[in-house]
Amino acid sequence: MISKEEHVAHWITQAEDDWEAVGILFQGRKYLQSLFFTHLVIEKLAKALWIKYNESNIPPKTHNAIYIISQTPVALDDKTNEFLLSLNRFKLKAVIRNISINCIKFATKNLQRVL
Q1: How far is the C-alpha of 67 from the C-alpha of 100, rounded, in Å?
Q2: What is the spatial distance between Cα 66 and Cα 80, in angstroms, rounded to a whole number?
């Protein structure tokens, strides 16, 4: 049986791998894809936190990092919460509209600098 610590480590390792991809995509000027992977990194880290602070080792099946983190004792400041909300909006638009023009405008180099 896999321990809680191993579950947490799994999500963190996956996030680290995706973070490496963020850098490669960004350097290759693939800003939209870089932003998409950034969301994945944050989601996976949120799931690691969720597992750490909850009894179960299976996090919620959602991509909403704000919701996942809200199920932990971790408190987000307003700036971080707004940033995560922006990423959630981006992800939703990308999935629903199959990466619409609005998402491309959103995924600017300036937004990536925030990271």
Answers
A1: 24
A2: 10
